[in-house]
User: What shape does this take?
Amino acid sequence: MTKKGYYAAPLFSHMELEYNSRMVERIRDSYPQLDLYVPQENGAINDKSAYADSVTIAKHDTDALLASDIMIAILDGQTMDVGVATEIGVAYQAGIPVVALFSDSRQQGATNSKKLAALQEVAESQFPYVNLYTIGLIKSHGVVVNNPEALIEHIHIF
Assistant: This one.
């Protein structure tokens, strides 16, 4: 039985586009029965040399998301991509489970006493921050993992 998925990730730099292409290839190889919608592959709205207005972009991507059985979200970046966060809210409201990747290396060292002590100093946190409201929406219907292998493994649960 074919399932539909939605891949949400930042897509505005060469690095992001290349990373997404590789992750999508790995997901498709692992789950050939998953019909995966990837916004960056939709040239009608995401060819940045062309024009698509905000309503057209929102309609295309939201329709694809609402038709999905699962959402795969990439949370990595300087901050979580605003579009991805918005899509997570749509998925939550629609009851679509989310498998999210947050692989920031600053998560390491949670037992390091110097890193923990630094939390008491203003602006010296050695750990990453991710919006807890958005994380709560994901965890209400899904999971957040910290490496690509776990992301791919958790897709089958949903």
